[in-house]
Amino acid sequence: MFIRGREMISAVIEALIGSISLSTGLHTKKIDANIRYLQQYEWFRIIYEDEKYRKLFITNYKVRSYLQSKLRVRLLVKNKNAQRRFLKLVEEQIEKRHTN
């Protein structure tokens, strides 16, 4: 199921405004709120509660940057392909952490 018209427009506007921001830092409150929201879903809870992955949600810039976007989070909830892409990102970050 896809995001409806108004939600999509709102999410796109939010993403554009966020990309214009002068700050390159992450917005911790948004990320934490999005993580709490995603914890309602079992597929996310399983990886979040796994210690191997959990550190990424706290410390990894790419994972946290991904989770900062309300649009991406909504897509994660509604779209299996988005979930697969997110899991691929998480796995790639785990591999990078182990090779460094």
How is this structure best described in words?
The protein has about 100 residues and is mostly helical. The chain has one domain. Helix content is about 80%, strand content about 0%. The protein is built from 7 helices and no strands. It has helices at about 5-20, 30-40, 40-50, 50-60, 60-70, 70-80, 80-100. About 10% of the residues are buried. The model has no long low-confidence stretch (mean pLDDT about 85). This is Group-specific protein.
Brief write-up:
This is Group-specific protein. By secondary structure, the chain is mainly α. It has helices at residues 5-20, 28-38, 42-49, 51-59, 61-68, 70-78, 80-99.
What is this structure's SSE topology?
Elements: H1 5-20, H2 28-38, H3 42-49, H4 51-59, H5 61-68, H6 70-78, H7 80-99
Helix pairs in contact: 2-5, 6-7
Radius of gyration: 14 Å
The domain tally reads: 1
Helix content: over 70%
Reported for the largest beta sheet, the result is: none
Query: Tell me, what's the shape?
Result: globular
Question: Which blocks of ≥5 consecutive residues have pLDDT under 50?
Answer: none
Structural class: mainly alpha
Mean pLDDT equals 85
- What's the total number of strands? 0
State the distance separating the first and last CA atoms. 39 Å
Compressed to H and E, one letter per element, the order equals HHHHHHH
Strand content: under 5%
Please work out how many helical segments DSSP would assign: 7
- Subunit organisation of the chains: single chain
